[in-house]
């Protein structure tokens, strides 16, 4: 089987239930989710340390769920019966966030992205996730979509923030606060 089909050579691509331009807002939304999934894979590849085994497995599950998000956004016609993203997925992320925040040092101000290479790539995951969320919201303004995808992406960006901080903490690296920030987090 050839990997190329030549069906997209004129700037269109297939979605579930039809064809759209490759620059369609739907393609932009699930394409950004695909981009995020690549960065998540890169983050996983940096997790050789045994003290990261728990979150390495979480990220693998998230990679599968990102494919689910993309699939749900690829429907031209709303198909609730076939949706894969459910509210329980965001709720599970909340549990993971709570666990990470229990181990993370308290912060009062915004922090600068960075620290070790793993934390840095997790901050990239966070920002690409926020962009994916914005693209999904834009899509949802013009067509019906599974609203759970937006909720999931919103919670997922919070997860990446907490995980980036935990990656630094587990490596013994302190987060750097944005010194010009007011105190924005309540402890």
TrEMBL record:
Residue ranges of every copy of the Cobalamin adenosyltransferase-like domain listed in the record: 3-166
GO molecular function: ATP binding; corrinoid adenosyltransferase activity
Entry EC no(s): 2.5.1.17
Top-tier EC class: transferase
Pathway given in the UniProt record: Cofactor biosynthesis; adenosylcobalamin biosynthesis; adenosylcobalamin from cob(II)yrinate a,c-diamide: step 2/7
ATP-binding recorded as keyword: yes
Gene3D superfamilies membership: Cobalamin adenosyltransferase-like (1.20.1200.10)
Pfam families per the UniProt record, alphabetical: Cob_adeno_trans
Catalytic activity: 2 cob(II)alamin + reduced [electron-transfer flavoprotein] + 2 ATP = 2 adenosylcob(III)alamin + 2 triphosphate + oxidized [electron-transfer flavoprotein] + 3 H(+); 2 cob(II)yrinate a,c diamide + reduced [electron-transfer flavoprotein] + 2 ATP = 2 adenosylcob(III)yrinate a,c-diamide + 2 triphosphate + oxidized [electron-transfer flavoprotein] + 3 H(+)
Domain of life assignment: Bacteria
Keyword entries, A-Z: ATP-binding, Cobalamin biosynthesis, Nucleotide-binding, Transferase
The keyword Nucleotide-binding belongs to this UniProt entry's keyword annotation: yes
Self-association and partners: Homotrimer.
Stated name of the protein: Corrinoid adenosyltransferase
């Amino acid at each position: 089987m050839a990997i190329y089909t030549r069906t997209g050579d004129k700037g269109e691509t297939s979605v579930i239930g039809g064809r759209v331009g490759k620059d369609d807002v739907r393609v932009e939304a699930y394409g950004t989710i695909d981009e995020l999934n690549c960065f998540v894979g890169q983050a996983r590849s940096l997790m050789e340390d045994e003290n990261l085994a728990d979150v390495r497995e979480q990220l693998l599950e998230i990679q599968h769920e990102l494919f689910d998000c993309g699939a749900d956004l690829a429907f031209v016609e709303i198909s609730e019966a076939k949706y894969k993203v459910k509210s329980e997925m965001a709720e599970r992320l909340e549990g993971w966030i709570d666990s990470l925040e229990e181990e993370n040092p308290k912060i009062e101000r915004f922090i600068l992205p960075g620290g070790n290479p793993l934390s840095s790539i997790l901050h990239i995951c966070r920002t690409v996730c926020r962009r994916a969320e914005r693209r999904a919201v834009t899509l949802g303004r013009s067509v019906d979509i599974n609203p759970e995808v937006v909720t999931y992406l919103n919670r997922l960006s919070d997860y990446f923030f907490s995980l980036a901080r935990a990656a630094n903490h587990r490596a013994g690296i302190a987060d750097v606060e944005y010194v010009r920030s007011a105190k924005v987090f309540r402890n």
